[in-house]
Amino acid sequence: MSNYDAPGGQTEALIESVSDSGVRICSPGNVRGRRTSPNTAQLTWDEPYATCHLCPDAIGYDVYGSGITPQTVVRPPCELSGLNAGVEYLLYVTAKAAGNNISTPSAVRFSKLTAPTKPGKPELRDLTHASMTLSWAPSAPEWGNNSYRVYLNGTLVKRVSHPEVKLTHLQSHTVYRVEVRAVNSAGVSEPSFATFKTRLRPPSNLRFSQSNGNCRLLWDPAFKTFPSHELSINGQTFTADPGVCWHHFKMSDVSPGPVPHHLRFAVHAQLDGEVSEVGLLEKTVVDDVPPDQPGTPVASDITDNSVTLNWEPSSDNIGVARYRVVLNGLLLFHTPDTHLTFTQLTSGAFHWVFVRAQDKDGNLSACSPAAVFKTTGQAPAPRPSAPQVSLTEVNATSVMLKWIYPVENPVSGVRILLNDEHLKDVLLFDFYRLQNLIPNVEYTISVAAFDVYGQLSEPTILVHIPKDVTPPGKPENLSATEVATDTVTLTWEESTDDFGIHDYVIYNNHEYFDRTPLTRYTAVDLLPGTYSFEVCAMDLSGNVSEPAALSVMIEGLSSSVLIQTTPQQC
User: Fold this and answer.
1) Which residues on neighbouring strands pair with residue 354, listed in sequence order?
2) SS3 195
3) Which DSSP state fits 509?
4) 5 falls in which pLDDT band (50, 70, 90)?
5) In the structure, what pLDDT confidence band is assigned to residue 556 with cuts at 50, 70 and 90?
6) For the CA atoms of 197, 203, 205, 208, what is the dihedral angle to 10 degrees?
7) 309-312 long-range contacts, Cβ below 8 Å, gap at least 24?
8) pLDDT, average across residues 33-47
9) pTM above 0.85, yes or no
10) Which of 166-170, 229-233, 545-549, 566-570 shows the lowest mean pLDDT across its residues?
11) Which among 235, 287, 239 is positioned nearest to 260, based on CA atoms?
């Protein structure tokens, strides 16, 4: 007889009615139950012959107890209804075999279902710039199969069955207040709170490029934050100003000597006294070294209309293929030798020339120092003076050049060079607009005056780095497709930008949610409720568009609560 039953009760009567012949069937084992709602429950158990080879086969089971209607089932489980969440129940299960062979009862107690207690204070671990893990002491009663609701800055973001959760899609360098409440069928607990701040996002997607020993390191811009950066290149330290996501340097400054060049980059962000984790990159440059700078051209055999130029040769790891000789910033000549003779020059005029070496792979050396010479004969006019030049930025891809012509020597116009290459001869006008520049790239602009005889002045040289400050266009036609019980797919039209879109940033209820380079995004593991999504376009310079907004209703599924009791063995 069960310890739960009083002498002379229903259980004792059942036992006394069992025949003494044969082997008594064992009691049902591991009786356990779960509430499927505050008023219903399900009982199940292990059948006797599953664990005892002597037991006869059961032909049915009786379930009874105070406060419920007795039931008979052929096999487990047994569905119960009409329960009261605030009442404690003591229930029995007996097995029946043929010949009025009835087992002793197995008991299970359903404790009164009460609202859970307040969860323990959330503890923080594995914090990054975009995610973190929270855990807390579980609420009582633990047998009530409590679930937990997790709120972030007042918005429900997760529902979990265990006292731990990982939060993702967080915004870098942002303070969050997290709230945890326990829930079961009897009610909701008081909340536990914790406050944390995500770490500063480390530089990501580091990439390196170089041309003729002029190197550039790039990384992705941070979204709506403008940290400064500290860089280490082969152990040398450099800094980048707030909002700048690139660094220019010379290969010779960080890796002198011949190829191959092994480069080790380490970059971290700094903002408000916080330092991010380090972004790492390693690169090896093989056979991309330009020839050395040629020597300064030396003029000889000067006549009224000709000159011979000689220069010291360049050296190169794969050999110099030819030299490019630029006369007066416009005329380009090629020669495999270290000398060249010009003819048909203007007599009595000043001319200037520089040389660049080129290897068989097309790598160009730095320009040699310019040489200035004057042909013999009667000069047609004095050499012009250098113009006074000013520069005004129009937008991220163009600048306006203006100059003042020298008054002492009449001139016809100016010759403009961009990065030592001839760009334009401008006659009579005193302005010119440079277009199709690339943001964040350094340009050297040279402006020299010339007269009607082709005589050039000394150049006026300016250095300019264009900045992109124009945000992309707003993503259009934001819509929701494939809406399910806990997911939704967002689609939109591609935004327009002068230099291209880097990412689309997605917000949920005005909080950072995720980012994608595509024009569609699927949000998963959503809880029931209304979600206010916003999508912004971000360009390569970190400029952000106006948001496109959309509200989505997510339909949810009902959940159940599990109750586990300590099993009794037969």
Assistant:
1) 326
2) strand
3) T
4) very low
5) low
6) 180
7) 309/339, 309/340, 309/341, 309/342, 309/353, 309/355, 309/371, 310/338, 310/339, 311/338, 311/339, 311/355, 311/368, 312/338
8) 82
9) no
10) 566-570
11) 287
Sequence letter at residue 383: R
Query: For 479-554, CATH number?
Result: 2.60.40.10
Average confidence score pLDDT of the chain: 85
H or E element, residue 13:
helix 10-16
Query: Which pLDDT tens digit goes with each residue over 444-462?
Result: 999 988 887 777 888 899 9
**What is the topology classification, in CATH, of domain 207-285?**
Immunoglobulin-like (2.60.40)
Between CA 377 and CA 302 the distance in angstroms is 10
What stretch of H or E contains 266? strand 261-271
Three-state SS letters, 69-97: CCEEECCCCEEECCCCCCCCEEEEEEEEE
Contact 389, 403 (CB under 8 A): yes
H or E element: which one contains 532?
strand 529-539
Sketch the domain layout of the chain as residue ranges. Answer: 10-110, 123-197, 207-285, 298-374, 388-464, 479-554
Identity at 516, one-letter amino acid code: T
Q: Residue 461: which of 472, 450, 473, 445 has the closest Cα?
A: 445
Q: Lowest mean pLDDT: which of 170-174, 228-232, 268-272, 563-567?
A: 563-567
What's the rounded mean pLDDT across residues 355-367? 83
- The answer to whether the CB of 7 falls within 8 A of the CB of 548 is no
Q: Which of 201, 193, 234 is nearest to 130 (CA)?
A: 201
Is pLDDT of 569 > 60?
A: no
Show Cβ contacts of residue 267 under 8 Å, excluding neighbours closer than 6 positions. Answer: 202, 203, 206, 217, 219, 229, 230, 231, 232, 278, 279, 281
User: CATH class for domain 123-197?
Assistant: mainly beta
Q: Are strands 78-80 and 89-97 parallel, antiparallel or unpaired?
A: unpaired
Distance CA 247, CA 277 (A): 18
Residues of the chain above pLDDT 90, percent? 45
CB burial of residue 301 (10 Å; 0-12, 13-18, 19+): exposed
